[in-house]
Specification:
alpha/beta, globular
Length: about 425
């Protein structure tokens, strides 16, 4: 029996025997990487006969849940509708107001394992577990870390230091285990929060999607396809992701403006797709106008995942220029879809991309290095720089979704609560 089949068999046996209710806590449900991963995990657990309930601290994009084919009954989903999906000052002061509905929800479902994703959920669930101690109701709390949060938000203010000190105290008492998506994320947490004696690294993974190539009839996809067909001879670059400074779109578009001048590129030579939504959308558009790049660029709002995968197969290069990144699921998706990747070396990206072997990498935020790597790729665009078929096979092995789920079940240590 192959290793992946053995893993699948083992965690199927565990699932059949298991009756524990697992509660998943997230800041929000939106079109972004954490949601994509969490919903894939939930669907897999539900398919393996685990009972899952979910707590969403802010808002839910219901269509995203529907697209993932994840289903909850009316009483299995608690949406608390906070204005911010992060640990803002407002949410910090409102945090105690969430304790009663959350504790009632967990007790109603008799949930024994809680997986909390991202800093806002980590903080809230530590407070919840403190309260539950007084009610003689015990939960196993698994804290899931997705980003290099201290690199992105350094402890450079009195408020941040105070909140972090509180989290240290609460975490040491109430965190049963930690999970990080890369070694870089684990290092960030251990250096700035504390070293948990049970801190696992579980590399992100996504199930293969048989429908990636077909069935995407969205009007926006048709528009993108039409635009790409009109640029049939161009070198096509996709920049996907949330439109924010940390994801590096502004940086990369600045590099592209230099690249265009250096190569005397006309719009028919270069096609740039910017796909996503976020707080810096208008700033990005202003930069494109300022640099005279309108003829080269096409903007699309965030797409359904299957639609994005279809568009990805139509481009020559996927750019991931993040200044900060925990893992970068879009890199994994690009490699699965046999696309060439140019990424920064931020955070955990260098644990996914091996420069020159399965993609290309530049030093995060360094214009000259990014420009040099982009120029090399462009000059050798017909040379088959990377064996993309072999890369896709390696990704399927290294980032096996079956192994990922088996490790997640190990992190929950369900044998202790059955």
């Amino acid at each position: 029996m192959k290793e992946s089949e053995e893993i699948e068999h083992e965690y199927s046996k565990m699932a059949v025997a298991n009756t524990t209710v697992i509660a998943i806590v997230v800041p929000a449900i939106a079109r972004e990487g954490i949601t994509k991963l969490v919903l894939s995990q939930i669907k897999s657990l539900q398919n393996k006969r685990y009972r899952i309930v979910m707590i969403v601290l802010a808002n839910v994009a219901k269509e995203v849940i529907e697209e993932a084919n994840v289903q909850f009954s009316a009483d299995e989903l608690l949406v608390l509708k906070q204005q911010d999906a992060y640990l803002s000052v407002r949410n910090l002061f409102n945090s105690t107001l969430l304790l009663t509905p959350i504790t009632k929800f967990l007790r109603y479902h008799n949930a024994k394992v809680v997986i909390a994703h991202a800093p806002y959920a980590h903080f809230i669930m530590r407070l919840v577990k403190l309260r539950l101690q007084f009610e003689s109701f015990n939960i196993k709390l698994v804290q899931y870390f997705h980003i290099t949060q201290y690199a992105q938000f350094p402890l450079n203010t009195a408020r941040r230091r105070a909140v972090n000190n509180l989290n240290k105290v609460l975490g040491k008492y109430f965190d049963d285990s930690h999970v990080s998506v890369t070694k870089a994320v684990r290092s960030d947490i251990e250096l700035n929060l504390f070293k948990h004696n049970r801190h696992l690294v579980i590399l992100n993974a996504l199930p293969r999607q048989a429908s990636v190539q077909n069935g995407c009839s969205m009007e926006e996809v048709k528009c993108i396809e039409g635009w790409l067909k009109s640029r049939s001879g161009s070198f096509k670059i996709l920049i996907p992701g949330r439109l924010s400074y940390m994801k590096g779109q502004l940086f990369f578009l600045h590099v592209l403006s230099i690249f265009i001048k250096n190569n005397l590129c006309e719009p028919q030579d270069l096609a740039v797709l910017v796909v996503g939504d976020g707080p810096d959308k208008e700033i990005i558009k202003e930069l494109i106008h300022e640099k005279g790049m309108e003829g080269y660029c096409y903007f699309s709002p965030a797409l359904q995942n299957a639609a994005l995968m279809k568009i990805m197969t139509l481009v020559d290069l996927v750019a991931v220029p993040s200044h900060y990144e925990g893992f970068g699921l879009v890199v994994l998706e690009a490699l699965q879809n046999k696309r060439l990747v140019l990424s920064s070396d931020a955070g955990g990206l260098k644990e996914v991309i091996e420069h020159g072997r399965n993609g290309f990498m530049f030093r995060a935020g360094v214009v000259t290095d990014c420009l040099e790597k982009l120029q090399f790729i462009y000059d050798n665009r017909d040379a088959g720089l990377v064996n993309l078929d072999e890369v896709a096979q390696q990704v399927e092995y290294k980032f096996s979704f079956e192994r990922h789920m088996a490790q997640l079940i190990q992190a929950m240590n369900l044998s202790d609560v059955n």
